[in-house]
Design a protein that fits this description.
This protein has 342 residues and is an alpha/beta fold. The chain contains 15 helices and 5 strands. Strand 2, helix 4 (71-76) and strand 3 (82-83) form a beta-alpha-beta unit. The longest helix has 22 residues, at 190-211.
């Protein structure tokens, strides 16, 4: 009789579905949508390295705008771009199977597409691809000034009021805006200061745009900016050259010396605008006299104007701005009037 125990047998594993059917949805590959944004204030073709990587490795690149400024540079780099404006559902379907689709956004940023993708994701009924917003270029400091130049150019061409304005017709607004800027500074209102700086900047851009149309001596905002850049560099040899300056007084000395060489003026009074307010004018003249080391006696007469002149010269010699001092006193007077009225 055979007493040997039979060898144990291993039970067969139960029949299971295919592995691919039991993997989580994420492992199957739902694809990826990359929304590529660019700044119109940066030259086309100047894209970040991650942007170029995304474009080169994408299964498909789409752009709804056939005249998009980036397209010629992408195609020159060997990137195939299809002109198409798919719906959110069509884009999700295109990504099925793990495909990556890059959408080169138009200037508006594709709001219809992004809103549609948000609705699909919120429904919970659609397996959504990975969504990524990839800035391909960023604005440089001062880039919004380009927008201002473009807006002003269009306004000059299409606005019935702005298209007829001349330098002389705008002159009073430059004075008004400058006063409003000073008032914002004195009030310490930061929001008002930002707004008033914009209004002053508008005057500069507006005048430069008008100047482009002069038949004899036209110039543009670039000429204006180029001129002030050259002036600043020349008058700051301690910053851009080999001169040294460690105190504000030394900086002012450099400024006055280079300015004198530039202007070659016959009198210290040359260049002082006579149209400015009287107290400011008197203080400016006194400053020129003091800086030049001249001894000029004040004219004498029995007139209130000469008394104000003497006060303005005295204020300037003491380091005070007579115009600002009078404004401060006038504000106090205004407050006293209101208190009395109240």
């Amino acid at each position: 009789m055979n007493t040997t125990s039979p060898e144990p047998t291993t039970p067969e594993p139960p029949t299971t579905p295919a592995a691919a059917d039991t993997e989580p949805a994420a492992a199957v590959g739902v694809g990826r949508v990359v929304l590529l944004t660019t700044s119109h204030r940066v030259a086309p073709g100047l894209l970040s390295w991650p942007a170029w990587q995304a474009l080169r490795t994408a299964d498909q690149v789409l752009c709804a705008d056939g005249a998009h400024p980036q397209l010629p540079y992408l195609r020159e780099a060997g990137i195939a771009v299809d002109e198409a404006a798919p719906t959110a559902q069509e884009l999700v379907d295109t990504c099925a199977g793990g495909r990556t689709v890059v959408v080169v956004a138009t200037g508006e940023g594709e709001p219809a597409l992004t809103d549609g993708l948000a609705r699909l994701a919120g429904s919970g009924r659609v397996r959504m691809p990975d969504l990524e917003l990839l800035p391909a270029s960023y604005d440089l400091p001062g880039a919004r000034l380009l927008d201002l130049v473009q807006v002003m150019d269009r306004i000059r061409a299409e606005c019935p009021w702005s298209s007829r304005k001349t330098h002389k017709g705008l002159a009073k607004y430059a004075i008004e805006e400058a006063y409003e800027l000073v008032e914002a500074i004195e009030d310490g209102d930061r929001d008002e200061l930002r707004e008033e700086l914009g209004d002053v900047l508008l005057q500069v851009v507006f005048h430069a745009r008008i100047a482009e149309e002069d038949p004899d001596a036209p110039f543009s905002i670039d000429d204006v900016a180029g001129g002030i850049v050259a002036k600043l560099i020349h008058r700051h040899p301690h910053v851009f050259g080999e001169e040294t300056a460690t105190t504000p007084e030394e900086v002012k000395e450099h400024w006055l010396r280079t300015k004198a060489v530039e202007k070659q003026r016959a009198s210290v009074t040359d260049g002082v605008p006579l149209a400015q307010p009287g107290l400011a004018l008197a203080a400016k003249l006194a400053s020129r006299v003091r800086t030049a080391g001249l001894e000029v006696p004040l004219p004498q007469a029995q007139d209130i104007g000469y008394e104000l002149l003497a006060l303005a010269v005295r204020a300037e010699s003491e380091g005070a701005d007579p115009e600002a001092a009078l404004r401060a006193a006038a504000r106090a007077y205004r407050d006293a009037i209101r208190e009395t009225e109240g």
